Amino acid sequence: MDQPVRETLRAYVLEHFLPGESANSLEDSTRLISSGIIASIALVEFVGFIEDTFGVAIPEQDIGAARMDTIDQLAALVASKRVDA
Question: Of 9, 51, 59, 63, which sees the most CB atoms within 10 A?
Fold first, then answer.
């Protein structure tokens, strides 16, 4: 998958949700929503960041832990929305 997408997502999560944590503390498989790293209100902000940064639209049915819980899932979602566009 697109490594720059993963790196951008990881940097955002570290800066906004895990300040002070090392980059090594966040793996592509780390659960972001179900572990409580990203709360529901913060998820709305994160979705806005993803849409603005990658030029994709994330429909409401895709928002949540089922499709957005890890960097791996987020990168796949961005890739699928780029194809859909």
Answer: 9
| 33 touches 64 (CB < 8 A) | yes
Burial class (CB in 10 A: 0-12, 13-18, 19+), 84: exposed
d(C-alpha 76, C-alpha 18), whole Å: 22
pTM for the full model?
0.86
Tokens at residue 2, please?
């697109």
**Identity of the residue numbered 7:** E
Which residue range is the domain that position 24 belongs to?
3-84
CATH of the domain at 45: 1.10.1200.10
